Amino acid sequence: QKEVEQDPGPLSVPEGAIVSLNCTYSNSAFQYFMWYRQYSRKGPELLMYTYSSGNKEDGRFTAQVDKSSKYISLFIRDSQPSDSATYLCAMSNTGKLIFGQGTTLQVKP
Amino acid sequence: DSGVTQTPKHLITATGQRVTLRCSPRSGDLSVYWYQQSLDQGLQFLIQYYNGEERAKGNILERFSAQQFPDLHSELNLSSLELGDSALYFCASSVSAGASTDTQYFGPGTRLTVL
Fold this sequence. Notes:
By secondary structure, chain A is mainly beta. Chain A contains no helices and 11 strands.
């Protein structure tokens, strides 16, 4: 069993929809949780970063961490075609990042 | 643009060969991380160097090695290449030794194809 599980999708939604992306994990020592966005043939770029449980909002993006359930989510409001990319969750307790498989999102105009 | 540079962008080689991938971190960053991304395994941590010294090791094969030079650029050496080594190889850099609060900035990657 992988330490971090993420549904690879693909996920296809119409423009303007609310998107929910999720990851589960097994290592209760993880304290830092990140979401990276990766466009095709590019390197991952950091979108959101949260520490421990709770919510964090940045514009149209909200990251949520539930440590009791070992579950993290990324919500995208008013999704745009430019949001079409692969979204990778990542987590850490030592600096070494453990990534999920990535979910491919397509937002259709 | 993250400020991390990687060369070459693409590399095509044959089984059994050896290649070297190069990474220059962002200005001021002392840590360099190497990752391998393949379709079946996803993005996997290989190794980290901090200010010239190996700091952490992940799922790195014995056929692979890395080093970080005094000017802080890093090289990943892959030898006795196999078909399964075909993947995207990313370098990332961060300011410190790997505190969990450090942001890792990724380069554009090197696409390796082993024929």
